[in-house]
Amino acid sequence: MGRFGNQADHFLGALAFSKGVNRTLVLPPWVEYRFGEAKSIQVPFDTYFEVESLNLYHHVITMEEFMKDIAPVVWPPHKRISFCYVERNGEKLNSCNAKSGNPFGPFWDTFNIDFKGSEFYGPLNYDAHNKEMMNKWKQKYSLNNWPVLAFTGAPASFPVQKENVHLHKYLKWNRDIENKSRSFIKKNMSGGGFIGIHLRNGQDWVKACHHVKDSPRLFAAPQCVGYKNERGLLTQSMCLPEKSEIIKQIKRAMKKLNDIKYIFVASDSNHMIDDLKTALRQFDVSVVKLQQPNPHLDLAILGQANYFIGNCVSSYSAFAKRERDVKGLPSEFWSFPSPKKIRHEEL
């Protein structure tokens, strides 16, 4: 579902589920939507991430390897059944319609997969931490009768289930991404520390933030407000902070940190480079961004920043925050806690 940040949340849940039912996880390609392309593009999982580190938690295999070496034996074309909770709308009645729409059709077509039937797994769910539920899956779908469970959608929740957040430690950038990120930092931000910031401000995001009042746990907001809003309420400024709020918060961070020489900006739209250069002139810092858009490289760089400021509601920011938590690196979010609360606690 969605773009990379949402898919990463789903992936952690699917990883937990595969361990819960004790089945090898076939690592799916990442689904990408590129400008000018009518259909989604499927990018092999290991284009960005290591496979070996995931095997430390549970057995995994890439989709490419599975289709080449294993599927012909255990999952021949006439035995390919798609799984979904209930019937999905589409061309056929009483069907998962697993290939209806984008990215569904292009995803399976990438591997020349067609389905001969559908299996509705409701009322079972994919809470991997419910042992009774996992046993029901094993009983209903035995390995002998169902060697492969091919889901129409990820067997996972969004945002990532609280109990699965820690699994991010097994998700590591591959050597290519690591080398590119370190090379960029060395070439463009040497001689001092840097603050990494994520600005989510494209028009689609502006529209999404209109739903803050009606959706107290919108998208990845639970990473800030909690899964039951136990840490406060979601506000408009947490979703879409004003330019003045962004600048004030960066200045506060600058004053409490030592030897910061750079601000690295990742954004889907407006990087605010000129605004930040002008506003931060007194601090003698350089404001930096990638010359060519590369969201994965942006994330790898944000994961290495001395300090990070992200967006509570964004699953993209959530990815960076999880990675930094694994490394023990400090982070905060725009307008959370509220500036008033921060000032009160400082008194």
Give short descriptive properties of this protein.
14% strand; 347 residues; elongated; three-stranded parallel sheet; alpha/beta; five-stranded parallel sheet; 13 helices; disordered C terminus; 12 strands
Low-confidence stretches: 343-347
* Separation of the first and last Cα atoms: 44 Å
Q: Order of strands side by side in the largest beta sheet?
A: 10-9-8-11-12
Class derived from helix and strand content: alpha/beta
Q: How many alpha or pi helices?
A: 13
Overall average residue pLDDT: 96
Beta-strand proportion = 5-15%
Q: Main β-sheet, in a few words? A: 5 strands, parallel
Secondary-structure element pattern, one letter each: HEEEEHEHEHEHEHHHHEHEHEHEH
The count of β-strands is 12
- Measured on Cα atoms, how large is the radius of gyration? 22 Å
Name the overall outline. Answer: elongated
Percentage of residues in helical conformation: 25-40%
Enzyme class: transferase
EC number: 2.4.1.221
GO molecular function: peptide-O-fucosyltransferase activity
Keywords: Carbohydrate metabolism, Disulfide bond, Endoplasmic reticulum, Fucose metabolism, Glycoprotein, Glycosyltransferase, Notch signaling pathway, Transferase
Describe the structure.
The chain starts with a helix and ends with a helix. Mean pLDDT is 96; it is low at 343-347. It is an alpha/beta fold and 347 residues long. The strands form 4 sheets. Strands 10-9-8-11-12 form a 5-stranded parallel beta sheet, sandwiched between helices. Strands 6-5-7 form a 3-stranded parallel beta sheet, with no helix packed on it. Strands 1-4 form a two-stranded parallel ribbon. The chain contains 13 helices and 12 strands.
